[in-house]
Specification:
Chain lengths: 320, 443
Amino acid sequence: MNLFVSASPHVHSGDSVEKNMYGVLIALVPAFIASLYFFGWGALIVTLTSVAACVLCEAAIQKFLLKTKVQVCDGSAILTGVLLAFNLPSNLPIWIVIVGAIVAIGVGKMSFGGLGNNVFNPALVGRVFLLISFPVQMTTWPRPMGFSGSYLDAETGATALSLMKEGGASNIPETMDLIFGQMGGSLGEVSALALLLGFAFLLWRKIITWHIPVAIFATVAIFSGILYAVDPTAYMSPVQHLFTGGLMLGAIFMATDYVTSPMSKCGMIIYGIGIGILTIVIRCFGAYPEGVSFAILIMNAVTPLINTYVKPKLFGEVKK
Amino acid sequence: MKTFSIGGIHPAENKLSAHQTIQVASLPKQAIVMLGQSLGAPSTPIVAKGDKVKVGTLLATPTGFVSANVHSPVSGTVAKIDNVVDASGYKKAAIFIDVEGDEWEESIDRSSDLVKEITLSKEEILARVKDCGIVGLGGATFPSHIKLAPPPGSKAEVLIINAVECEPYLTSDHQLMLEKGEQILVGVSILMKAIDVNRAVIGIENNKPDAIKHMQKLATEYSGIEICPLKVQYPQGGEKQLIDATIGRQVPSGALPIAVGAVVQNVGTAYAIYEAVQKNKPLFERIITVTGKSVARPSNFLARIGTPFSELIAQAGGLPEDTGKIIGGGPMMGKALVSIDVPMTKGSSGLLIMPTLESQRAKMNNCIRCAKCVSACPMGLEPFLLSKLAGNAIWDSAEKNHIMDCIECGSCSYTCPSGRPLLDYIRLGKGKVGGIIRARNAK
């Protein structure tokens, strides 16, 4: 009789790339619902365009350029699409969204060899490319009006962070609005509550560990707390820093991207602290009102270095 | 609840044969006794074709330091000494004995009376353990008399008994504790005397609450023996993990348990030592779990060494039609067999029959650097990195990243969402790096 012979172990957890990717997508559902509630058609159109463009771009590159099996079903391209869309204003013209998706997948991911090999978070590569190339469109934020607002000629306003950049900390939305998301901003970043729900789901399903997001939150809170204590009129409070801009989205969903974050727990904390510090430095002292994307990309570049020097604690290691 | 401090996984337990009373397996028609049944060199046969042997007759003696006596598990005539495919898939030397009746050596006490009083001295115990060919029955089969004689300059402080049975499916140790608890405790007392310690800790995972309760009740009558319930976590049965879990000491990289004052023995070994010392019975039979999801009667057998696995499978209800893989041992560290005619050895703790659907590995994808293997590794290693280094033959870096610390528990491969054969590569690397280190030390 014929028997299968292979080396141990002979059982597997049943975990898969798909389960993790679709798990993150499920965790993004509350934030997506919130974005529909606040930004209506714009949120829907931008998200669908971005996802479709990312998936088609990856499939085309795999089929025609690499001539390998098309593997878009693993969910990673869909995830990149959703995350890119969540980092865009909901009134962004469709063609710009498509350009962003092509850069995200083509340059950010496939040019490095596809899933698992990219150095930078693809969605952020796309987003930052658009921010630098189309600064006006990328910083025109529609007011949250739900489905009553129209897509392209939406009524626009400033984000909390740009208000703060221009006129100090006096004209920031109420804290409750910050938590629920009643403010201008990228379509997926506004509702901290929805994003935190997603965070709880990711932790429960053991898709990510707490280290990176908590390190970012703690660093931002402490660093901005010091600045606030020094001069409360010039700087936002730690609560406002935590609940504005892309911090929640970035810390929970972008910085925790498997491929571009460190492998050891200690490395993850260093990486999170780095993102937290860079975010506040850019927000308070830089030219841009928001710095989460840049902070994550810069720390992505540092990740290989962290992986080389920060190792997990070895069993039986003697403390020096 | 206590457990080890780094990593670990919790695979589906599937203890299908739990609480199945130990059945005495029928004698094989022909026993095939492997000469290499323990870690170290295969033993040297002292019988020849045509010799009459009884149950318990010495068949082979140690070759070199790390090696053990082998005794006849049956009575009959030596038919031949020939090569046979063993559990590793390679042809190895074995003694074939045609079974005639079941006549035991007179020196063996066959009564079932419990002998509590330990009359032998420390030296006599060690000599008896060596004579009776006792080896570690957890699977590593390291000759026990060597393990019980710590290197000069080191002193054992505590004896740790491995009764965690962390491998899924296996239940032989569990059932042994339920049925032979007293004998095990006497065995533990013998071991304590042999290594001159007054404290023993028996680690049992809490998926066996009845065994914990039973042993706790019995242990009140034995001084110095404590039962330590442990949280279910694989690979808790790993020697270093068990020491960490029970007494909270971590054996340094490259060192032996004695470095932290611990000696670890398997619960099955403790029972075998009871039989050897109190009953003068050599190790020629053991408890083995025969199990699997499609097996008609998952069972715990008391079977003679040398019994072909096919005969045990027949007694468990026959080979299921959907059989795809047969594993000697548990699913995490066991070896896939190339044939069902492989004979049982001293290290055979279980026989697991996997249906075809569960026999093949999942398709391998790119590493997505999720770090789940890093979280799972109980030795604090980076399996993704070690497998990559081994795959690219970067041996010096693999050594620097502690590849030799890997205990091959398989937690990394089990966890990997991309289905990467991490442990395969790491094993390859360990072989190469181990060779490089030996060559360097030989200079």
